[in-house]
Amino acid sequence: MRKNNYGRDWELRICGYLEKQGMSILERNFTVKGGETDIIAADGDYICFVEVKFRSERAMDAYQSVGYKKQRRIIKSAEKYLCKTDCRLQPRFDVIFIFFDGDDFSLEYIKNAYDGSTN
Questions:
Q1: In a domain, 62, yes or no
Q2: Residue 101's domain is classified under what CATH number?
Q3: Is residue 15 part of a domain?
Q4: What residues pair up with 41 in beta bridges, in sequence order?
Q5: Is 103 exposed, middle or buried (0-12, 13-18, 19+ CB in 10 A)?
Q6: What is the pLDDT of residues 17-74, one digit of tens each?
């Protein structure tokens, strides 16, 4: 399976996981010039911009993989989405890490992983 298809398959699985958590999926792979968000979901009073990251093992560099530059791209797409939809929910930026160890995997869901300020 091509890497892109593999990632999209896992993002679909993550959508199912989020729905089981009570969230509503609003959009997948929302892309604008200079930015992209893997999953956009509603969670109560929040609109969540979720980045999905895959790693072969649990390591510190996994957490650094959503650095300042990546955050800016997600925030940019979030701003465009909020303007496009006139959404009034509070934005939240989440990250889901999928760690692989052979055939096993584990999930780590970090809600409000970073703020959306442009400073």
A1: yes
A2: 3.40.1350.10
A3: yes
A4: 25, 48
A5: exposed
A6: 999 999 999 999 999 998 899 999 999 999 999 999 887 765 556 566 788 899 999 9
**Token pair in block for residue 48:** 């969540």
Number of domains in the chain: 1
In a domain, 74, yes or no: yes
Query: Dihedrals φ, ψ of 84, to 5°?
Result: -65, -40
Give domain status of residue 103, yes or no.
Answer: yes
Distance between CA atoms of 58 and 99, rounded to whole angstroms?
6
Q: Residue 98's pLDDT is what?
A: 87
Q: Which long-range contacts (CB under 8 A, 24 or more apart) does 68-76 make?
A: 71/114, 72/35, 72/118, 73/34, 73/35, 73/36, 74/35, 74/36, 74/37, 74/49, 75/35, 75/49, 75/116, 75/118, 76/32, 76/34, 76/35
Q: Output Rg (C-alpha) for the chain, integer angstroms.
A: 14
**Across-strand partners of 64?**
none
Place of tokens 């939809």: 85
Residue 74's CB: how many other CB atoms inside 10 A? 22
